[in-house]
Write a structure and sequence with these properties.
Elements (H helix, E strand, L loop, with lengths): L1 H9 L37 E16 L2 E2 L12 H4 L1 E2 L7 E8 L2 E7 L2 E16 L3 H6 L10 E6 L2 E21 L2 E30 L9 E12 L16 E13 L26 E24 L2 E4 H6 L3 H8 L1 E12 L3 E11 L2 E10 L14 E9 L3 E4 L2 E4 L3 E4 L1 E5 L2 E5 L2 H6 L5 E13 L151 H12 L15 H15 L5 E8 L6 H21 L7 E5 L12 H7 L1 E9 L1
Parallel strand pairs: 24-25
Antiparallel strand pairs: 1-4, 1-5, 1-23, 2-3, 4-6, 5-6, 6-8, 7-9, 8-9, 9-10, 9-11, 10-12, 10-13, 11-12, 12-14, 12-15, 15-16, 16-17, 17-18, 17-19, 18-21, 19-20, 21-22, 22-23, 24-26
Helix pairs in contact: 7-8
Length: about 725
């Protein structure tokens, strides 16, 4: 008892828990329900359908006084006090943590909503501002110590063990293009276990060695010590469960994800097999921020005593003490006592940044900040830290290497892995393997049942996933359970749409062959009148007779007016009102007597006019070409002749050419014929019917004047138009 009492009294042995658990593991996208302990928002849009934790544990020890080569500690004959490297300071710390997670689970209750329920047992202890020089001095007990005088300062320590039943809810709060935000809340029921704490106020101790009789050495102290426990262990050293020691706690968290490739995960374009991309990590950068362990436990039966430790005691008095409380009660004055005490949770702020470097390779930077005051009575918190963790993660395997700078114990490097349902790791194992002065050790391991989100299998890529596809290897529509529709007659029309499933036919006729309903040799699909027989030339329809005159419209010159068949379906008409029907009128549009078959008779006046006009048609001398000098006049004469001739469509006229007797008779004959032909051709060009005209040349054989005079010869060179009679 002597060594234990001295160390407790002088606050020279201390254990302090850090709340950081599962180092390097909890930021993995496949950490599942464990991740909710550090940020409840992390489980929203999870890669799990559900994750069931069967059992997991995390523990850690660290200090800034003793450094050891960890694996040598377990060797036979290892002397901790002699072989450990000591670094005594006026304010030393040592750290221990245990965190056990019992049956727990998380699952997605909707695409954007997730819940988790967990059970957890935790042990946390803090003692700070311990004088390491004093510990080093009395590590073998006062009977081995020499004279010393140390200021023990304001040591503050607390230890608590409790259980948690938590329920977490997380949801997607905002989603717009590349921006994705989710939040989470955890509510915890807390059941208290064992709580103890000690607080020193301006404590100073000095020891005077007695070389003759070591038991007579004296320890002089001053200051004040407050000691509290969750129950009276002086009266009953056996712990009894107190169901009334309980409380409530909360965790809050937010996670923002930057998703630059958000268009690849557009749900409006997702196929059924894509399962809304729930199996994919979609961010390039992820930022997380959370506050955990807000709350306290009320120990209603807790005992708190304050002692003035002013006085002198001997080594013998220490040896005679039965326990720590008996030692304080017997040797110091109790100044105050009370029943009942609240102890806070280790409230902390957590932040992390996760970078998806390439495919399944990530780099995580995260840190924890203690939110509990160091001098709070019965208060305990975490050790501040920052970690950089590269990792490789996939659905069934992860490997990570956390590199952590931890308050008190310095830099630590560890590693861990996750394989299917198992995970194991340590944030300090690599440091412990190589360092001779390691000041920390931690571990975590667990077994769970993960049920992952995954892309559904669709081997035939028909949009019907295999588990719902009756024909898994042959593409088919959803309506037919993934099987192709049958086509019994192979006409390209599926049986479900084929009115003649056993008889090939075109799509336009619902898979049935076309009929010829009216028997006119035209199939109904090309028959404009499928129910009435008609000729092929009229698309299967009978020819119409609109005016009902017995002449079909196709042959009826007057389809809308009844007429005679011999008159092409038109009635007898007399357009020129000359009393002769148009069908018997050779000139139906020009008034004429019946004696001339309805055409006008050519009068002497008309012939005289034609003579005058023809006389004024001039040719180049000795040629059958119109005179250039009088071309305009000649053209006008020809127009006038045309207007006269068109009034006599039933008359026939001759164009006669004549010359004088000068020159060769044969040449004159040919010249007269050519000139007559030129005039006839010009009249035809102007629109005179060729059937009404002939031409003839007479040379010098029919003079009208004497060729002995110049004036007579001029009269003989002429063109005449002669009426020959009716056609």
């Amino acid at each position: 008892m002597k060594k234990t009492v001295i160390i407790l009294m002088l606050f020279v042995a201390t254990l302090s828990a850090k709340a950081q658990s599962y180092m390097g593991y909890f930021h993995d996208n496949y950490a599942g329900v464990q991740s909710v302990l550090f940020n409840p928002a992390s489980i929203a849009d999870s890669r799990f359908k559900t994750d069931i934790n069967l059992f997991s544990i995390s523990g850690a020890v660290q200090n800034d006084l003793y450094g050891v080569k960890l694996f040598d500690v377990y060797k036979d004959g290892y002397d901790f006090d002699r072989e450990a490297k000591r670094s005594p300071l006026n304010q030393n710390n040592a750290l221990v943590n245990f965190d056990i997670m019992g049956p727990s689970f998380m699952f997605n209750i909707a695409p954007k909503h997730t819940i988790a329920v967990f059970t957890r047992a935790r042990s946390v202890t803090n003692l700070r501002n311990v004088n390491g020089n004093l510990i080093d001095q009395v590590k073998e007990g006062l009977d081995e110590a020499s004279d010393f005088n140390f200021n023990a300062g304001n040591v503050n320590g607390a230890s608590n063990t409790w259980g948690e039943l938590g329920i977490s809810y997380a949801a997607v709060l905002y989603q717009n293009n590349q921006h994705f935000l989710k939040g989470g809340l955890t509510a915890k029921y807390l059941q208290g276990g064992v709580n103890g704490y000690v607080k020193g106020q301006d404590v100073n101790v000095a020891f005077n060695e007695n070389t003759v009789d070591p038991d007579r050495g004296t320890l002089v102290s001053n200051g004040q010590i407050t000691v509290g426990t969750s129950q009276d262990f002086e009266a009953n050293e056996d712990y009894k469960f107190d169901s009334n020691a309980n409380g409530f706690g909360f965790d809050l968290g937010l996670v923002y994800e930057w998703r630059p490739d958000y268009e690849q995960y557009d749900l409006s374009k997702a196929k059924r097999a894509d399962n809304n991309f729930r199996d994919l990590n979609k961010y390039k950068l992820r930022f997380g921020l959370s506050v955990t362990d807000i709350g306290s436990i009320n120990y209603k039966k807790a005992r708190q005593d304050t002692y003035d430790v002013n006085g002198t005691i001997t080594q013998e008095m220490i040896n005679d003490a039965g326990n720590f409380y008996e030692f304080l009660e017997d040797n110091y004055t109790k100044t105050s006592s009370k029943i009942g005490m609240k102890t806070n949770l280790p409230t902390a702020l957590h932040a992390d940044v996760d970078w998806n470097m390439y495919r399944k390779f990530y780099l995580n930077l995260n840190g924890d900040i203690n939110m509990v005051a160091a001098n709070k009575v019965n208060g305990y918190g975490i050790a501040n830290r920052v970690s950089l963790t590269p990792r490789y993660e996939s659905r069934w395997f992860s490997f990570y290497v956390p590199m952590t700078y931890m308050q008190y114990s310095g830099m630590q490097v560890g590693s861990g892995l996750r394989v299917g349902a198992f995970f194991v790791g340590s944030g300090s194992v690599l440091t412990n393997l190589v360092s001779k002065e390691s000041k920390a050790v931690d571990f975590h391991l667990g077994i769970k049942i993960p049920v992952y989100e995954k892309k559904f299998r669709d081997r035939d890529e028909d949009g019907v996933i295999d588990k719902e596809d009756t024909c898994k290897k042959v593409a088919g529509p959803v309506e037919n359970k993934g099987c192709p529709w049958p086509d019994s007659d192979s006409d390209g029309v599926f049986d479900k749409d084929d009115a003649c499933a056993d008889l090939a036919g075109p799509v336009e006729n619902k898979g049935c062959p076309w009929k010829d309903s009216d028997g006119d040799t035209l199939l109904d699909n090309v028959d404009a009148c499928p129910a009435i027989s008609g000729p092929v030339e009229n698309k299967g329809c009978p020819w119409p007779d609109t005016d009902k005159d017995g002449v079909l419209d196709k042959d009826d010159a007057c389809p809308n007016e009844a007429g005679l068949p011999e008159n092409k379906g038109c009635p007898n008409l007399d357009a020129d009102k000359d009393g002769i029907s148009d069908k018997e009128d050779n000139c139906p549009l020009i008034y004429g007597p019946a004696s001339n078959k309805g055409c006008p008779e050519v009068s002497k006046a008309t012939l005289e006019q034609l003579r005058v006009e023809a006389k004024s048609i001039f040719f180049t001398t000795g040629k059958a070409t119109l005179s250039d000098a009088k071309k305009g006049e000649t053209s006008g004469r020809l127009d006038a002749i045309k207007e006269i001739l068109k009034n006599y469509p039933n008359a026939k006229f001759a164009i006669n050419g004549h010359t004088d007797n000068v020159g060769n008779a044969k040449a004159n004959q040919k010249l007269s014929e050519a000139r007559a032909k030129v005039v006839m051709d010009l009249l035809i060009e102007k629109g005179v019917n060729p059937a009404n005209l002939t031409s003839k040349g007479y040379g010098a054989t029919k003079p009208v004047k004497s060729n002995k005079t110049a004036s007579g010869r001029a009269e003989n060179r002429r063109t005449e138009i002669v009426y020959l009679g009716n056609l």
